[in-house]
Amino acid sequence: MADYELMDETNGMRYKYCWWRITVLVCVYLSITILVFFIWHRAYDSYGQTVNYLAFTNSEYATCMSISITCIHFVIYCIVVFAKDVSIQLLEKATAYSAAFRNHGELSHDFRLVKPSTFRVKSLHSESDYDSLEEIEMRAPAPSKRLLVCYYSLPNADKYLNNLRLSNVNGSLCTHINVGMTYVQNFSIVIGKELNDVLQNEVPKFRIQYPESKLLLWVGGGSSSSFGFVNMVKTHKTRKIFIQSLKYILHTYQLNGCDLDWEFPSAYNRERQHFSQLLYEIRAEYVREKRPYLLSVAVAAPEGIAYFAYDVGEINKYANHVNVMTYDYHFYTKSAPFTGLNAPLYARYNEFSILGTLNINHSVNWWLLNGLERSKLVVGLPTYGHSYTLINAFNTGIGAPAKDVGRSGFAGFVAYSEICWFKQNNLHVVEVYDQQTCSPYVDCGTEWISFENSLSMQCKAEYIRNNQLGGAMLFSLNTDDFNGICNDQGSEHYPLTKIVANVLQK
Q1: Phi, psi dihedrals of residue 433, rounded to the nearest 5°
Q2: How many domains does the chain have?
Q3: Could you tell me the CATH number of the domain that includes residue 190?
Q4: Considering the entire predicted model, what is its pTM?
Q5: One cellular component GO annotation, for this chain's record (predicted)?
Q6: What is the pairing mode between strands 257-262 and 413-415?
């Protein structure tokens, strides 16, 4: 297996063409000066006066030259000031980079292609130079080891995935398990009857069997589960109600913390700011009560959403780790009626502009560049696939036209065990592994499915380990093959989760 590395997605474009820009600026200003001179010349011609440069009087010539020289001096002054500012900025940045590289260990700059242009400069002073002890104490500590975070949803939360019980989960595979879903209503966390039964009856038994595994309350999620966040985060009063309900639940069910999965804060109504305030206030309660509770956040991976939804620096301060949902990059919609890979590691050769950003590597680059610590960045990996119905059964490549979601799965979401069943029970099934993106897909007739298998999971887990990121997040245990359908002998349970766990533990 090849060693995959974090490729630089910015191509070093930030300062590369600085002097070219200055040259273009000079040309533009000179062109404007010449244009003004010729307009002035034409203005005299319009009154029937013939302008003869050699016949100018001394006063006319002096006036013309004075205007031209003044313009040129102004242009030169602007250029000098601009160049001086640029030079000072570059000098300061170069000094900061040099000092940062001297003061940081190798783990902070060992990405060969990232180092020249996307290394984020941290403060050259110690925290004690500027921050009070209270501010330092408020900062959430980063994980001391690589994590494997697993999501577990209720048996009855989705009728389509109704067999897995928490008591049947192999807790030795995951360092953290997020149990849910819960949702926010009237500013408080609401726990349904089924989840209450799990937390009351199954969590204590699970803790006895797997004492090392951390159990977190999963708050929010896709669809309507995130709607309650919008009103809850608006004011300090409503956020306080939420935090009181959270503290009560964590204490009552002896959980290790919570995972906030708001999908997603919008660019309006200060939701980005209010979300950061919520994280701060939760962390403040943890510190005030001297509770070792964990706080994690599930965040959007695509740059187009993350840029408007999150203040990365604030999240980095108050969250113990951040689960970046690096999947669902492509699935069937009416606005994107063509096949695509669920969680490609890199962009394909023919993907540019926005399409070129829809991959794991680009998202990891973006979050690191914007201030998330590497040890807190947990990369999301799906244990499910997306199905499509092809328009033409003979056009089966990536990007082939599709007319709807596929027949497999539920609304186009296909569990790994179902994909195995699909391959075992259909004739002329063609499976392709795209080396460029570490992603497989399978087709039969007009059915086309993008999914993950043992090879792609191993590739992406090695990417996480080789680039020394915080770990992997699997979504979810419910869609992995927990019944052993993919294995002919029926003895292999949770095959995708096991592969990621084995790679990260090396």
Answers
A1: -110, 115
A2: 1
A3: 3.20.20.80
A4: 0.76
A5: extracellular region
A6: unpaired
